[in-house]
Structures are given as C-alpha cells and as structure tokens.
Amino acid sequence: MPGSKVGAKLVIGNWKMHGGLRGNEVLLQKLANGTRAMPPGLRIGLCVPYPYLAQAQAMLGASRIEWGAQDLSAHDEGAYTGEVSAPMVADFGARYAIVGHSERREYHREGAILVAEKAERALAAGLTPIVCVGETQEEREFAFTERVLCAQLDAVLDRLTVEQAAGLVLAYEPVWAIGSGSSANCEEVQDVHAFLRHHLARKGDAVARIPILYGGSVKPENALSLFSVPEVDGGLVGGASLDATQFLEICDAAAAASGIVHAHHGGY
C-alpha cells in the first residue's frame, strides 16, 4: 500500500463564522505579506465565510495563498433559498470547499449521503473538497472510532469514481478536540491516519495518496510535532487561523516538518 506523500504540506485555515471587512483586510494583508518568502512547496489556503470570498479573491489573488468556502449546497441551482452552490463559489476563483465539518454534521444534521453529494458537486465545479471525518468523545470511549470513520468516508468514496476520489483532501478532526484546546497526541493521530490511509487504498493507489490533514486544536505549540507524524500531510486550522502570527508560525512548522528549506519570519 502506498504511504503518505513525502514532501510539501498543506495548511488550510478555517475562519468558521468570524470576520468583518475591516478586520479581514488587516489579517489578509498580514498573511499575504508573511507567506511571500515561505518555500514554494508549502501549500496554504483559507476557507472564509461566503460574504468574504470576493474580498479574499481581491486581496489574495496576487499572493501564494489560495482560498475557499466552508460549505456548499448539494444542488447547482434552483429554488433553494439561502443556499450557495459550488459553481457560485468557483466564480470567485476559489480552490477549496470544506464539506462534512463536524459542526455541519451536528448543528445542521448533515448526514453522510449529503456530505458525499456535496463533495461530488464541488469536484464537478473544479473545486477541491476537504472532506472532514471524526468521532465524538463518546464514540471514542466505546471504541467506535474506526466504525464511525468508515461510515463517514465510505459514503463519499462509494459515490465517486477513482479519478474523482483522487482529487479529494481528507481531514481527520476528532470532534472531542475541536476548539477544546486539547489536541490528540501524536500516537493517536498516527494510528488514525494510518488506518484512514489503509482504508483509502481499497479505492485505489491514487486515492491512497491524497493528503490527509489533521484538525483539532492545532496551535503553534503543537504544530511541528503533529506535522512530523509520518501520515500527516498538513493541518486544518480553526481559531489560530484568525491570528496572523499564530497562523504563520503554524505554516512555518509545516515547512519545517516537510524538510523544505524555510526561514522563520518575525514581525508578523
């Protein structure tokens, strides 16, 4: 079975429901400036609320940061008031779309089939879906982690062709670690990521090589150790992506873990 890709990491910031035009301008400018001298092999993205996609496009278009949305509709158009389609997101030059985040699954009752439909729509619009999977504390305590992850992941893989599935990014976000300030330890992360890699291989070698990100209280203090785990290809970063200094330090850690030459940038 192919192992994790060697080399460049992918770091995605998820602003969740935060932001405002003035504050965004300051943050985006600091991030655009702070990433300019980072190694070209490092990939960086920001997933912002829908109203700020135009601002992200305008301010990041000349930078090395890509941008995307935090969700999208399972429909391309129609009488779906309040929904935002994948083609609409793509109109703003977006690269990524998060689908199946635990907050969507929990607060909006999104099931595995709906998440799979959204991933398919994203791919059809030329977007890269970041498919989130993860277990709750209770599911972990009852040793249901692998069962839960398989159910969430298989719904997506079963819907897609091998070629489509090879265009995914997978993000493991243990629900119990998100926003808690307490990350999974490196051994736990390695075990789950290795399991996911092995499960992806059942769909094909190309699918086994897709990036698997870790998310769940990724901070500057733990980023290097997490990104140094062999099967971790980067991170999906929540709260720390709202702070330029923290997010840039996490990007620096990703570059260091990749083994690519980088320099720490002060004065963020």
From TrEMBL:
Its EC number is 5.3.1.1. Keywords: Cytoplasm, Gluconeogenesis, Glycolysis, Isomerase. It comes from the Bacteria. It is found in: Cytoplasm. GO terms for cellular component: cytosol. The active site is at 101 (electrophile), 173 (proton acceptor). This is Triosephosphate isomerase. The gene is tpiA.
